[in-house]
Amino acid sequence: MARTAVAPLTAPAAPLPPPRLPDPPIYRELMRAWADDGRSLPGRHDPEWTRLAAPWRGLGLFSPSAAAPRDGGR
Q: The whole model's pTM is what?
């Protein structure tokens, strides 16, 4: 019985996405106006959003009260 070598099939290369067109002038002007007003801009780093979206760190800043509960723990 003769042995035959089997080569793995390779997937065809994915087509390249079309080149990105520049933003229309009215959109660039709107982005400039928003940036001048200090607003958040799409695709730009937003420190406030980063702070708000950060994982909650719990109550690490506060310490539990050493006093016993007033209702006797019930």
A: 0.39
Q: How far is CA 29 from the centre of its chain?
A: 26
d(CA 42, CA 23): 13
Record the tokens describing residue 48, joined without a space: 């406030």
More confident residue, 33 or 23: 33
DSSP character string of the chain: ------PPP-PPPPPPPPPPPPPPHHHHHHHHHHHHTT---TTS--HHHHHHHSPP-TTTTS---SSPPTTTT-
At residue 38, what are phi and psi to the nearest 5 degrees?
80, 20
